[in-house]
Amino acid sequence: DARRAGHHRVAIHTEESAARRLARQTQERALRKAIESNALALHFQPKVDLRTGAVIGAEALVRWHLEGTGDIPPAQFIPLAEECGLIQRIGEITLEKAFAALTAWMATGRPPVPVSINVSAVQLDGRLLAAKLRDLLRSNMVPPELIEIEVTETAFAHDMEGAIAELQAVRAMGVRIALDDFGTGYATLSLLQRLPVDTLKIDRSFVSEMIDTRSSEEIVRMVIALARALGKDLVAEGVETVEQSRRLVELGCEAGQGWLYARAMPFDVLMAFIEKSHSTEPGRVQSNMPLA
Ligand code: C2E
Ligand code: MG
Ligand code: MG
Ligand code: MG
């Protein structure tokens, strides 16, 4: 009968959550081990001038390769790390690795490349970001303007004033701030006006639909106008086709990143990629470079 069926469902549900809990605990242990054994890597996706394909920066993206399992996407383990308190340590690791990469790059004497680093809302809550950045800027020869911190609108959801204060402290050091996945959160125009933000990153969902869907193109147009009105820089995320790239330039967005140009790659591969991008004549759009 219905009650029995209901009871049965509850039993299954409980079993499933137990299995999920176990899987989570296993993954949490594996993540701890990965952190201890320095198994997390930082890869870099080039950011390009959409008109020429020249590299104008790079976004650092954390990578976890679990032996015997394969690559675990950050969309899976970052939320886990946020829940189990490992995100602070991961945040420190990514900042340290990004500074190490920039320091190595500067030692070659080549023109410097700005690097963007993603920061979780939980890291802002802990108020440790500015302090960590201050340490790293002191102990490395990296000019602050080469560092950009990427936050999403969710960073302002719990403690908006606290997050704004922390980012203001970061920005006061000369580090830049980008608002990631812009348009997918709940940021109102009046909030946006108050945020200490230098760059708006147009979310991939709008870019991927802008050619076929009128409303997505209108949103992209609006974000570009908004950035102009507020004096913010713009970067389009997830540029996958030449049509998207051309349309973005026509609408007034001249910086972007996406698989049309390159996926995230290890730092030594990025260095070679940049060399090549500079030796290419301007005007030629590079695409589908060999992947790492
Ligand atoms: P995000 O910061 O918006 O990063 C962009 C994501 O889109 C990256 O996925 C990137 O590999 C992917 N992507 C770039 N170009 C294209 C494209 O043309 N097409 C498609 N389909 N995807 C593209 P990834 O590396 O899996 O990272 C996912 C999210 O995980 C990031 O979104 C970011 O929110 C978070 N994340 C990554 N690394 C870190 C980190 O070091 N710390 C923190 N807190 N979060 C990170
Ligand atoms: Mg990002
Ligand atoms: Mg993004
Ligand atoms: Mg995005």
Describe this structure in words.
The structure is a single chain. With 292 residues, the protein is of the alpha/beta class. The protein is 51% helix and 18% strand. It has eleven helices and nine strands. The protein has helices at residues 2-36, 74-84, 87-107, 121-125, 129-139, 160-172, 189-194, 204-209, 214-230, 242-251, 267-279, and strands at 40-49, 55-66, 70-72, 115-118, 147-152, 176-182, 199-202, 233-236, 255-256. Strands 1, 2, 3, 4, 5, 6, 7, 8 and 9 form a nine-stranded mixed β-sheet that branches. A hairpin with a 3-residue loop joins strand 2 (55-66) and strand 3 (70-72). The chain is globular, with a radius of gyration of 21 Å. It starts with a helix and ends in a 13-residue tail after the last helix. Residues 1-6 and 281-292 have low confidence and may be disordered. The structure holds ligand C2E and magnesium ion (3 copies). The site of one magnesium ion (MG) has 4 residues, from loops.
Provide the fold topology:
Layout: H1 2-36, E1 40-49, E2 55-66, E3 70-72, H2 74-84, H3 87-107, E4 115-118, H4 121-125, H5 129-139, E5 147-152, H6 160-172, E6 176-182, H7 189-194, E7 199-202, H8 204-209, H9 214-230, E8 233-236, H10 242-251, E9 255-256, H11 267-279
Parallel strand pairs: 2-4, 4-5, 5-6, 6-7, 7-8
Antiparallel strand pairs: 1-2, 1-9, 2-3
Helix pairs in contact: 1-2, 3-5, 5-6
The structure holds ligand C2E and magnesium ion (3 copies).
Residues 181, 203-204, 237 line the site of one magnesium ion.
Averaged pLDDT: 90
Quaternary structure state of the chains depicted: single chain
Bound molecules: ligand C2E, magnesium ion
Report Rg.
21 Å
Series of H and E elements? HEEEHHEHHEHEHEHHEHEH
Beta-strand percentage? 15-25%
Binned, the helix content reads: 40-55%
Distance between the termini: 58 Å
